[in-house]
Amino acid sequence: MTKLSPRAIGALILAALLVVTVAFVGVLVVLVRNADEHDPVITAYAHGKTVNVTPYVYCSVRMEDCRYGQTVALDVPKDYPLQLSLPKQIADAPWLAQLVYALPNGDRIDRVISHADFAAGALAVSIDSHPEPDLRLVGVELQLPILARDKDTGKEFYLPHAAWSISTAA
To answer: How is residue 35 annotated by DSSP?
Structure first.
């Protein structure tokens, strides 16, 4: 039997490492390509507390394959804003946010803001918790709307195919 030189042994080890590395990268590429795509998550922040907000509802734009979640609670004290960090999938889309404010007597006032109120592709949004002395923010629902049409009347309207819900009142 022929004895291999240290140089030949080193070359064989290097070749084996190269084969293992190529195989590992190939498996990794297949796993990443076949991985499930995750629903976008919003990060909400107020007064030193951060929560991740998963979708309350998330459907395809054809309103199929819907998944449902829950409203996330985050106390937003008076004089503190609610700050939302948006993932790129939402920031780059035409989104709407339904803001629900309460008056001291319990009456509700709805306001709407949209992507058009901010710089294009803005990744952060700040919402005033008390825009007027008697108003208190009690909830926010951020939506990704699609244009839908009523079959009977032919009227067009916006319908959210995805929404994230935050309750801001303690």
So the answer is: S
